[in-house]
Amino acid sequence: MADYVVEFGKDGRPVEPDGRLDASAFHRNHQAIRAVLQRFLAGKSGDVIEVGSGTGQHAVDFARHLPEITWWPSDLNDRHLASIVAWRAHAQLSNIRLPLRIDLSDPDWCSEMQDGRGPADVLAVFCANVVHIAPWSVAEGLLAGAGRYLRVDGLLFLYGPFKRGGKHTALSNAVFDSSLREGNPEWGVRDIEAVEALAASAGLALVEVIEMPSNNLTLVFGRSHAI
Ligand SMILES: C[S@@+](CC[C@H](N)C(=O)[O-])C[C@H]1O[C@@H](n2cnc3c(N)ncnc32)[C@H](O)[C@@H]1O
Prior knowledge:
Blueprint: H1 24-41, E1 46-51, H2 57-65, E2 69-72, E3 74-75, H3 78-91, E4 100-101, H4 112-115, E5 122-128, H5 136-149, E6 150-160, E7 162-163, H6 171-183, E8 190-191, H7 192-201, E9 204-212, E10 216-223
Parallel strand pairs: 1-2, 1-5, 3-4, 5-6, 7-8
Antiparallel strand pairs: 6-10, 9-10
Helix pairs in contact: 1-2, 5-7
């Protein structure tokens, strides 16, 4: 059964003295996720916002392999934000910005996106393993913000387990869904169709559904009029 972490650093994983946290899932999924991003983003330049970055390990990995892109990690949790800062300092890469404090339940995301301190005309938004471990309002805010901040040819990447046509794609995802809902009735594995409906209201449409290891998917959205 898939496991999930609400707060890294409290799950028995090692914590570095500088605050760098480690996500066990990162070691299993980062290469497959990076391959998807490389397929869509290689050769492009611009700003990519990662929302719900967690430890910051994905941001460092992406920045290292896609050096033309400026990465803007973000999270809501103070410990995670400190870990992102520490991973950024450790990596010594010039194309990672300091993390933004983005609360996805707010469709505006954060003040920096309004006042020019954040990126404008965003090339892509990346979000891994967030919408099922959060209330539906987080998915609503994520799609609303992506619809607002993505540039004309911008893309939204949404990685995680999803249901298709109201059905789980694997028994392990059904068990995982039950454990999520037991922990919080507002959480749960989302329907692709429900996310698509949110996307449509934000002017976005599903471009591709990519099968990922361990019964996960990456949903790729683009602007409806650009497809
Ligand atoms: C399971 S972790 C995934 C972390 C990372 N994306 C990864 O795949 O390793 C979920 C993340 O979403 C963040 N999160 C939860 N609610 C959020 C919200 N309302 N706005 C932004 N981030 C949120 C958590 O702090 C956590 O870092």
